[in-house]
Amino acid sequence: MSQSSQSQPFASRCARRGLARFRGNALTVTSAALVCIGGLAAGAGTSAAAAPVTVWAVGDGPNPYPGTRTKEVTDFLHEQEPFNDLLWLGDVYKAPTDKVYNELYDPTYGRFANQTYPTPGNHELKSDRPLEPYDHYWEHHRPAVVGHKIDGMRSNLYAADLGNGWRLLGLTSSFIPPDSAPVAPDPPHPTVQDVLGFLHHELATHTGTCYVAIMHRPRYSAGGRDEQNNDLQPIWQDLAGRVDLYVQGHEHEYFRLDPSKIPDYYPTTVSYDTNINKHLVRGAQSFVVGTGGITLDYLDQPGQIFDTNFPGLERYLVPPSNSDKFDLSYYGALRLSLTRGKASYEYVKLDGSVYDAGTTTCKPVAHKTAGR
Known about the structure:
CATH class: Alpha Beta
Helix content: 10-25%
Radius of gyration: 20 Å
Strand order of the largest sheet: 1-2-8-9-11-12-14-13-15
CATH superfamily: Metallo-dependent phosphatases
């Protein structure tokens, strides 16, 4: 950026974090991405372009197992500071309690708590009281991200303005089974229908497609931990055509999908709208980043073989064998650089090298004005 000789020789930057407000039934969080640019030329009448918003994303980390790489990943993230936000994609192992959050999560990923947008994982459901330790931790550290209450239970649903016309959808794929005691009411919240209700309001009150959607389990996956998560199909259908970047965890590796290349009949045992994936935002990308410190899965792992021929699979980084599952060269995190109408993405390994990279474009998100 050029400046006249009369201008101040600096550019100042500031971040405003943690603000929240309700708009209808949807909780909106104002993110850290308010960028202030100073040092403009005196009397020039020009404005500076906003700096990119830098967001990191990773999940599947804190655990008590031998060989854990959680410290190495969080030390790597610490070296990347300053950045705007961290998307935590869920799973604290193995059945997290308040004590586990205090002893395993807080000393590692907790150092970024005031700039974290989280989503609960399936292991958070394995607590004696499913999701309760997750809710306790975030109610204390960043209350807005546990969402509004439904029948006295936290929804884990929220939205956040990231900056530069980008908006985050903090969703959940972690649903408490109806027969899980001691949880009330029945069925317990959140549910798929709760997510749909949140999305209907959010998407009806905003225009644009520069959305980042996070949840733990991916709708479509080349990994071997689950079959395709068919219960998420109604959510996927609501997001189609409105979301540019899908970011998830759950599988213990990194891979990227072009969801427009996935047939809607995949798997063939389920009947869907056969056109829904053709309605996606042009260039939309789906990431799985389960490399936050847990033992990694490997290609020929018995019972959960990684599908290298999965439709739409663009790039993957998976250890080839059991002997490589603790190899630090497979760990890393996803970096997003968000500018107005555009995102650059990179999977960065712990040594700083970039394994996967690309860009995508979208229409900036804006709140609908009255009469529109």
